[in-house]
Amino acid sequence: MLENNKWLKKIPNLLTICNSLCGFAAILYTLHVYDDNKMGTAALAVSAWIIMFAMVFDALDGFAARIFNAASMKGLQMDSLADMVTFGVAPAVIVAVMAHRMKEGDNLFTPKDYILIWGVSGVYLGCAALRLANYNVKAMSPPKNYDGNYFCGLPSPGGAAAICSAIIFFHSYGVIKHITYGLPLYAATLGLLMISNIQYIHVGRWLFSVRRNKKRLFILCALLAWTATAPLYAIILIVNFYIFSGPVMAVLRSIGLISSRSVSAAATSTE
After folding, report:
1. Could you tell me which residues come within 8 angstroms of residue 171 by beta carbon, excluding any fewer than 6 positions away?
2. Is the dihedral of CA 258, 198, 92, 156 positive or negative?
3. Which of 153, 189, 231, 255 is packed most tightly, with the most Cβ within 10 A?
């Protein structure tokens, strides 16, 4: 039996380590940009792509743990630590270094500017840490009213995807300088959404339900077709649609247009 093979049970943790190595690589690559004039802004986009690729490992480790019956508290802790590196530290570093690199030639940054940029980047980082710590505590003892189809607050990979997709999109069109101030503020907003009580659809479980739901299957096929024809526009719009779907749905619930749900901050898969 696959689930009884001790070597196969190591696969989920190996995938988690690959996730953290992607975050480490993104940080190292980004730091080359800080004082190296030869390194263009393309390095920032490469780092963003590395983080986006890490989400594959982040999704596969939980899937592998279920397949091989290898779920454990050790795996839970490792997953959150890896997510902290890849989806917490790495995006915050990219945002701070990007702001420094964009203004370096113009000498427009003052000490106050750096305090602002580093401060809002720190908000994102701190909120990611708080969310993941809260996730670990809640996951150890899930409450009775937990609805596994929803997250309470924005998942940390979602916040990282929003930052990285913006960097990739604006770099591709040569206008990344235009988000020098906007992206750090957006990052801080994403951080606050992470620790909020706003409900977000559990994308992984939504995807697994596609085969049983023709409407969702049609939506998925349409999104894949759109991504294949216009990947940059599709990625940034899909990611940000997900980001804003939470607050919009919260408003609709508050005015009674849709039914409310009871959702806990705990989750049974990666955040």
Report:
1. 41, 42, 44, 45
2. negative
3. 153
Q: Exposed, middle or buried by CB within 10 Å (0-12, 13-18, 19+), for 4?
A: exposed
Q: What is the pLDDT of residues 13-31, one digit of tens each?
A: 899 999 999 999 999 999 9
For residue 150, give the 3-state DSSP assignment: strand
Percentage helix, strand, coil, to 5, in the chain? 75, 0, 25
- The answer to whether 200 touches 246, Cβ cutoff 8 Å, is yes
How is residue 129 written in tokens?
């840490």
Would you say 53 and 22 are in contact if contact means Cβ atoms under 8 Å apart?
A: yes
The pLDDT tens digits for 122-169 are 999 999 999 999 888 877 776 666 666 788 889 999 999 999 999 999
b/e burial code for range 195-211 (CB count within 10 A of at least 16 → b): bbebbbebebeeeeeee
The tokens describing 193, both together, are 């959404």
- Contact status, residue 164 vs residue 136, Cβ threshold 8 Å: no
CA pair distance 196, 192, nearest whole angstrom = 6
* Nearest of 91, 90, 95, 51 to residue 184 by alpha carbon: 95
Cα torsion angle, 125, 129, 130, 135, sign = positive
Q: Determine contact, residues 128/87, Cβ cutoff 8 Å.
A: yes
pTM of the shown model = 0.86
Cβ proximity of 271 and 155 under 8 Å: yes
- How far is residue 160's CA from residue 125's CA, in Å, rounded to a whole number? 11
Angle, helices 42-67/90-104, rounded to nearest 10 degrees = 170
> What tokens were used for 75?
């795996």
pLDDT for res 14: 92
Distance CA 15, CA 62 (A): 9
